[in-house]
Write a structure and sequence with these properties.
Elements lengths: L3 H22 L7 E4 L6 H9 L4 E4 L2 H10 L5 E4 L8 H7 L2 E5 L2 H13 L4 E6 L16 H9 L4 E7 L8 H22 L5 E3 L6 H7 L3 E4 L1 H4 L5
Parallel strand pairs: 1-8, 2-3, 3-4, 4-5, 5-6, 6-7
Length: 231
C-alpha cells in the first residue's frame, strides 16, 4: 500500500487532468466527481479518500466492501460498481448506499423487493453495455427503454442515471463513441420518461478526457490513485 503522501500526489495529478478536460470541454470542474476505486486495497485506501475529503468510494465485491466497512470508523458513501449476482442483493443492500451495476431485470426486481423489506429507497444506476462488448455486463442499448420503465415503476428504487464501461481497445475512438452513445441514449430516455437521469458514470484512468467531453459526471479511478492492487 502506498503512503498518504504518494496518494495525495496521485490525486493531484488526476484532479489536474479532470480540470483540464473540463476546461477544454467548456464544463465546470465541480460537475465531475472523482470516485476512488478501493477494491483489492486495504481499508487504508478508504481512509485516504476520506482524509482528502472525497465523498465516496467504489467497490466491486460485496464481501470485500463489507469487511472494510466494518473496519472503517468514518463516514463516506459506498458505491457498488462491480457485477452483482441477484442472490447477493440483500447483502449488497446492507453495505452500499448506491448500486451502479444494475444490469438485468431480474436483479432490478430483486433489489426493489429487498429494499422494500428493509423500508428503504435504494439509489441505483442502470448499467448499459453501450460499447456492445460481449465481455461486459449491462443492458443492451435497445433494452434500456424497457429497463428504465421497469425501474421507474418500482416502489423502492431511485434511478439516478446510467453507467457504462468502455471496451478495452487500443483505438481511443472506441471509448469516445461508447461514451457519446450513452449520453445520447440518456438524453433520449430522460426526455421520453420525463426524468433527469443526472448521473453519467463513465470513464476511467485511460479514457477520462473522452468521458468528460461526452458528459460524464463521475470518473472511476483506481490504480492511478492507489498503485498496484494487493491481489
Amino acid at each position: 500500500m502506498i503512503t498518504y503522501k504518494q496518494f495525495q500526489k496521485n490525486l493531484n495529478r488526476i484532479e489536474e487532468r479532470i480540470a483540464a478536460a473540463c476546461h477544454s470541454s467548456g464544463r465546470k470542474v465541480k460537475s465531475v466527481q472523482l470516485l476512488p476505486v478501493t477494491k483489492n486495497h486495504s481499508v487504508e485506501a478508504v481512509n485516504f479518500a476520506q482524509t482528502s475529503r472525497l465523498i465516496a468510494v467504489g467497490e466491486n465485491r460485496v464481501q470485500e466492501a463489507a469487511a472494510k466497512k466494518s473496519e472503517f470508523s468514518g463516514v463516506i458513501r459506498w458505491e457498488l460498481i462491480g457485477h452483482l449476482q441477484s442472490n447477493k442483493a440483500k447483502d449488497a443492500l446492507e453495505v452500499f448506499d448506491r448500486i451502479q451495476s444494475v444490469d438485468s431485470l431480474k436483479l432490478l426486481k430483486r433489489l426493489d423487493r429487498m429494499a422494500g423489506e428493509t423500508g428503504r429507497k435504494l439509489s441505483i444506476l442502470l448499467q448499459c453495455n453501450a460499447g456492445e462488448d460481449e465481455n461486459k455486463y449491462g443492458f443492451a442499448p435497445v433494452e434500456m427503454d424497457a429497463a428504465l420503465d421497469a425501474a421507474l415503476g418500482s416502489d423502492h428504487l431511485q434511478v439516478d442515471g446510467l453507467m457504462t464501461i468502455a471496451p478495452l481497445d487500443d483505438d481511443p475512438d472506441v471509448a469516445k463513441i461508447t461514451f457519446e452513445r450513452l449520453r445520447e441514449l440518456r438524453d433520449k430516455l430522460a426526455a421520453k420518461h420525463g426524468v433527469p437521469l443526472v448521473e453519467l458514470s463513465m470513464g476511467m484512468t485511460g479514457d477520462l478526457e473522452a468521458a468528460i467531453e461526452a458528459g460524464s459526471t463521475q470518473i472511476r479511478i483506481g490504480t492511478a490513485l492507489y498503485g498496484s492492487r494487493d491481489y
